[in-house]
Amino acid sequence: MNQLELGQIIAIRDLEFDGNSVRVSIGIPRQEPGGTDYVCPYEIFGPLTKKAFYAMGIDAIQALHLAMKTIDAELDVCAERKTGRLTWLGGQDLGFPSWKIEQ
Question: Half-sphere exposure (CA, 13 Å, Cβ side) for 67?
């Protein structure tokens, strides 16, 4: 299985965009074959954005945490977000941990 393959999905979040869904799916973190690091694949699939990628960590929890933070960054720059009409539960906060530093 390559790093981009979701494999077993452990979490899905559907965001709203103009009556359509932008689906975020996260695969189960797994150890790299022959390595010690873990990879956590994710996918963002919407009307304007189609992205599959992964985050890596020293263990499964770090890989999952970094994937969620990376998803937040990816959503920040996706075409749906740039319109200002991407929401979750009617709000602009999409519910993923951020890389941004709170001041």
Answer: 33
Q: What is the pTM of this model?
A: 0.91
Residues whose CB falls within 8 Å of the CB of residue 33, separated by 6 or more in sequence, listed in order: none
What is residue 79's DSSP assignment? Answer: H
C-alpha to C-alpha distances, 84 to 19, 40, 77, 91, nearest whole angstrom: 14, 28, 11, 11
CB atoms under 10 Å from CB of 97, counted, come to 12
pLDDT one digit per residue (tens) for the chain, 103 residues: 787 889 999 999 999 999 999 999 999 999 998 899 999 999 999 999 999 999 999 999 999 999 999 999 999 999 999 999 999 999 999 999 988 776 5
